[in-house]
Amino acid sequence: MTTEMAESIAGRRFFCSWSGGKDSCLALYHAIRNGGRPEALFTVLTEDGVRSRSHGLPRSFVESQGKSLGMRAVFCSATWQQYEDAFLAVLHEFKASGIEAGVFGDIDVASHREWVRRVCHQAGILPVHPLWGRDRRELLQEFINLGFLARIVALNEEQLDKNFLGKSIRAQTIAEMAKAGIDPSGELGEYHTVVTDGPLFASEVGLRTGGRESHDGYCFLRVDP
């Protein structure tokens, strides 16, 4: 994390934009390490309110992650078309409650950070990107070295074989993904993960799976409540 980012989060109450996966988790880790005061995990659900929009995780599973992390889980439900308006409405609620900053796990996709900055500015929230500009492979190795545990729960069917579903993020898996021709960081949506344990967690979050399902070009490992 840069000195500027470390100083901006120190002492501030913040929410973490929470996918349940490795990048948001590592961003949370660095925000806490640099003096931020964690208040909430914020996850956008599908319009029916059942599962997270990006990773397909049940609401109850995200709540279990929050309980182990000692943070409350905050949700909104939206279609992709409603996403920005719903996201912004929650940011205004955070601001009204005294939360000053939002922590995001983006690494180097400029359009993602620009969107975050724009919506946070509208709500008067300080956007913080603890992982921004760091080497992708270095971040993967740090995640593993810190002792976090994560498994692949979704993948782009055109880029990765379905056999990667359910695999843990470790050195062998990273090598296999590189051999398959993708960037193992998954920053461009090649795959998504769920974190179940690590240095921030009071206890491991149990993960029960129930088969696969495909839609919108992705194959998901169905995580049961």
Verbal overview:
- This protein is α/β, with parallel strands linked by helices.
- The chain folds into 2 domains: 3-128, HUPs (Rossmann fold, 3-Layer(aba) Sandwich), CATH 3.40.50; 148-224, putative n-type atp pyrophosphatase, domain 2 (Alpha-Beta Complex).
- The chain has 7 helices and 9 strands; from the N terminus they run H-E-H-E-H-E-H-E-H-E-H-E-H-E-E-E.
- The strands form 2 sheets. Strands 3-2-1-4-5 form a 5-stranded parallel β-sheet, sandwiched between helices. Strands 7-6-9-8 form a 4-stranded antiparallel β-sheet, with no helix packed on it.
- Strand 4 (101-103), helix 5 (110-123) and strand 5 form a beta-alpha-beta unit.
- The longest helix is centred in the middle third of the chain and has 14 residues, at 83-96.
- It is globular, with a radius of gyration of 16 Å.
- The chain starts with a helix and ends with a strand.
- The mean pLDDT is 94.
Q: Fraction of residues in helices?
A: 25-40%
Contiguous runs where pLDDT drops below 50 for at least 5 residues? none
CATH class of the largest domain: Alpha Beta
Could you report the average pLDDT, rounded to the nearest whole number? 94
Say which CATH homologous superfamily of the largest domain is assigned.
HUPs
| Strand arrangement in the largest pleated sheet | 3-2-1-4-5
Name the descriptors:
5-stranded parallel β-sheet; 7 helices; alpha/beta; 225 residues; putative n-type atp pyrophosphatase, domain 2; Rossmann fold; 2 domains; 4-stranded antiparallel β-sheet
